[in-house]
Amino acid sequence: MLTHKGPEDWRAANRAMWDERVPLHLASDYYDQDGFRRRRDVIRDFEVAEVGDVTGRTLLHLQCHIGQDTLSWVHRGAAHAVGLDFSEPAVEAARATAAELGIGPDRATFLAADVYDAAEAVAASATAPDTYDVVYTGIGSLCWLPDIRRWAETAASLIAPGGFLYLAEFHPLTDALDDESGSRIAHDYFSRDAWVDESPGTYTDFSAPTVNNRRVEWQHTLGDVVSALAATGLRLEFLHEHDMTMFQRFGSLERGDDGFYRLPAGRPRVPLMYSLKATRP
């Protein structure tokens, strides 16, 4: 089963949570907006190597949040990058950043829409291309979606012939491990239940006072993600599993010189992230 059930208010709750956190993220050291305005590039080295040269290509970034990754691909040569997110404050922030950098809507378009409605939003836009050489997404995105099959169908419908989907995401195995050490199975890897949490704060500042704290998430097994993409007719080019992650998911992780977090040397390794590329023939 690739569709999970959850509370009826999941979309409204998640949108309210993300809307409130946009200004917190814009002001945070984690996103470092001032630094981004100078560097204009936050794409991770492994993504650069796996996506390849985007010069002259069109790119669609699903669930783009405040647009830093989207604008980074423009900086790397994309002919036109489109960022889509369901949070209107996030999209407004992305548009403002683009304007500050002198990037017009002919190079970067930002759309406010639910990811499941991406095809309709693109079609209704006056500046967004209909299909894309690269559909890019991931790093904490899929957990907000209950229907992974519908996600795959939507993404696949927006890929131009010969184009591809690139996904970099946290490995679902990490959801099954204990939070303290990451060394034992503490949760059901195959759980289909929605995870509802009401903790205040955000990943850029866990102590931040926040009001809209209800959020609903789901976990998707690696098999479900790959099967959903395969069912659309896309051809899997690679599936890579990585021993590093973006943040201290477990108390035992150590940060390396490259900025990634890994298990201590000498401990058996497990995959903490994965990435894949699926091409439209």
From TrEMBL:
Gene3D superfamilies membership: Vaccinia Virus protein VP39 (3.40.50.150)
Keyword Transferase: yes
Gene Ontology terms: biological process: methylation
GO molecular function: methyltransferase activity
Alphabetized InterPro entries for the sequence: Methyltransf_12, SAM-dependent_MTases_sf
Segment forming the signal sequence: none
UniProt name for this protein: Methyltransferase domain protein
Source organism: Streptomyces rimosus subsp. rimosus
Lineage: Bacteria, Bacillati, Actinomycetota, Actinomycetes, Kitasatosporales
